[in-house]
Amino acid sequence: MECRNCGRELKENERFCENCGAPVDTGEWDGTLAQAENTEQPVPKPKKKTGIVIGAVAAVAAAGALAFAFLSQKDPKEVVIAAFENIYPEGQTSPIEELFGLSGFREKAASSDMETSLTMVLDSCSQASLNEYAGSGLKLEVREDRTNKTSYANVGVIYKDMDLANLDMYYGDETMMAAVPELSGRVFTIDLGDGLEERIENSPFVGQAIRESGIDVAGLMDYVREMREKAEAGEQKTLDLDALMTRFQEGTQAREKFEEALTVEKGEKGTFVVDGKEASCRGYQVVVSKASMIEFLRSSSDFFLNDQELKDQYLSQLEQSVRMTQIMGGASLGTSASDMYLDQMEDVTRSVDEMIDFLDKSLTDVNMDVYVDKKGRLAAVKGTTSLNVEADGGTDVLDIAFDVRMQGGSYLTQNLLADVTLKNSGDTMKISLDKRGTYDGKRLTSDTELSLDGGESVKSAAVWTGTYDGDSGDYHMDLSLTQDDALVLDLSMAGVVDQLEKGSLIHMDIDELKISAQSPETQVVLRGEYSLEPLGEPVTALEGEAFDVLASDENQWQSVITEFYMGIMRLANQLSL
After folding, report:
1. Radius of gyration for the chain, computed over Cα atoms and rounded to the nearest angstrom
2. Rounded to an integer, what distance in angstroms lies between the CA atom of residue 75 and that of residue 293?
3. How many domains does the chain fold into?
4. Cα separation, 262 vs 77, whole angstroms
5. Residue 327: count of CB within 10 angstroms of its CB
6. What is the separation, in whole angstroms, between the first and last Cα of the chain?
7. What crossing angle do the helices spanning 241-252 and 254-261 adopt, rounded to 10°?
8. Arithmetic mean of pLDDT, 22-38
9. What is the arithmetic mean of pLDDT over 367-371?
């Protein structure tokens, strides 16, 4: 008899199929339902084939997992290169940018109507002779009205918290103006429009002085006109660094060749502190060969010395310098700009070749242990190399050991420890960098110490500390320089940012700018304020009696000089009171 469910041949008196567990239909029934329901049902025994199939499936799954893990592992060299390339990844946290919006300020300062001012006065001084002038200082103000193509600048002299004198300057409608209201009611004007060369040539006083100085007026006017036309046409070329680096990469492939020359193997794991926690990091042994470094230097120098756009830019600057020297009455250089360029390029090429030859004789391979965390970030680099340095008729070996640890924070290098030890047959010098910082979206702290320890011969340090509280606006910065544990110079500044619109407006009070020096022992304290904000109102021309600088004769100039002299005497009398 066969099982009706799976077709297996059944044994005699078998009530359940051993293969599928289905009940066997024997054709017998006593009419009692309870008897059928209460019949004990034996548990079917597992078939041996089922266990074999399950084992085979598990083996295949394990093999697949191992294969996937193997195939998904990145090449060690790719891991190391990516870790170095992403030390400063695009889009990383920038506390200064988040707090102040510096990129916005840069853009507005270059293209929008803006005004800025800075005031600094002496608060106190440890030198009695200077302390008498407490409250004296300078005030600077610049207003750019790009919409109307006008600008204004002011330099003010403050004496004991009193405005003493101001130099006002204005440019607009091809006219330049200047005035010192405290000394004269005149507004000195120069028309820079068409016909300027003729006005200078016909000037009864200034023109004569210009001619006697040897200035080529016609040449100067041609030069100014050319520069203005190029600027208006957008032809005033500046060096495009991004395009330069693209040409360097495509033209030399120096980076690819350097990366190919790296030897990278898996090393021992290491544990390092990253983002305030201990992290287990993969280790890699890296060798940077001397040959690859020299090849990189040679190919790079060949590119920069022969890049046509760089050469054209430098030659253009040189031609302008030679031209301006001749225009301003300078002595003839006796050679053309092109000849000067060729001579200078020969000197530069010779110097670069000599430097690379020196490094070729001195360098050795660089051996490094590189550690990368689970996120692919560089956690630490330890390495050694040496230089063969010729000295006193022989060769001395300078051993170099370095240890750098990226400890992260709001960005990878916010906390960083680095040591470089230089050691030769007679001396040892250690350079250490300890960088600490915190940032929580509002409060920013930064502490950096750079120290140099050469034993008894050299021991110095530079320490920077800074804090900023985004809620209160309070800030403090300090930079100190020490030599043999004694203070050499200390600069500190404290105050409050009382107005801030990120990337648009800032006003800060400088409550204290302190300068302390050891030799001679001096302490100077300044105070002031700084602001950068959108232009409040359009820039207008200076008001007063116009004085045409070019059209005025010697008698008119003499009258102005006398007026200035009398104004200075009035100020002197006021100060004496």
Report:
1. 40
2. 22
3. 3
4. 8
5. 19
6. 134
7. 50
8. 51
9. 97
* Residue 87 placed within a domain: no
CB 16 within 8 A of CB 41: yes
Alpha carbons 265 and 273: distance in angstroms, whole number = 23
Cβ-proximal residues to 302 (8 Å cutoff; 6+ apart), any chain: 252
CA 305/CA 301 separation, integer angstroms: 6
pLDDT bracket for residue 354 (50, 70, 90): very high
Q: Alpha carbon of 228 to those of 144, 153, 235, 312, 468: distances in Å?
A: 18, 21, 10, 20, 44
CB atoms within 10 A of CB 110: 10
Mean pLDDT over 200-212 rounds to 86
| 3 state DSSP class of 164 | strand
The residue type at 279: A
* Domain stops at, among 364, 397, 425: 364
CB 429 within 8 A of CB 436: no
pLDDT bucket at 33, cuts 50 / 70 / 90: very low
Structure tokens at 199: 């006005």
Query: Can you read off the two tokens belonging to residue 390?
Result: 């010729």
In contact, 82 and 376? CB cutoff 8 Å? yes
| Domain endpoint, select from 347, 364, 381 | 364
The helix/strand/coil state of 440 is coil
Write out pLDDT tens, residues 88-141: 988 889 999 999 999 999 999 888 999 999 999 999 999 888 899 999 999 999
Identify whether 219 is part of a domain: yes
Rounded Cα distance, 405 and 382, in Å = 9
- Angle 289-300-293 from CA coordinates, rounded to 5°: 10
Cα 175 to chain centroid distance, Å, stands at: 38
DSSP state of 508: E
* Sequence letter at residue 466: G
How do strand 263-274 and strand 277-288 relate by DSSP bridges? Answer: antiparallel
Residue 362 phi/psi, 5° resolution?
Answer: -100, -35
C-alpha pair distances (Å), 305 with each of 291, 309, 401, 484? 21, 10, 33, 43
Q: Are 335 and 321 in contact (CB under 8 A)?
A: no
Report the DSSP beta bridge partners of residue 523: 516
Three-state DSSP state, 181: coil
Residue 380: CB atoms within 10 Å: 22
Angle at 520 between CA 519 and CA 525, to 5 degrees: 105
Answer whether residue 530 is part of any domain: no
Residue that is written with structure tokens 């640890």 in the block: 405
**Beta strands per DSSP E along 392-442:** 394-408, 415-423, 428-439
Specify if 21 maps to a domain.
yes
Phi, psi of 512 (to 5 degrees): -155, 125
Grouping H, G, I as helix, E, B as strand and the rest as coil, residue 577 is coil
> 400 CB contacts (<8 Å, ≥6 apart)?
384, 385, 386, 387, 420, 421, 422
- Residue reference for tokens 């300044």: 526
Domain that holds residue 6: 1-71
Residues 6+ apart with CB under 8 A from 148: 172, 538, 539
| Closest alpha carbon to 534 in 143, 171, 241 | 143
Instruction: Report the DSSP pairing between strands 545-548 and 186-191.
Output: parallel
Helix extents (H) in 171-307? 196-201, 206-212, 217-232, 241-252, 254-261, 290-306
| 493 bridge partner residues | 477, 513
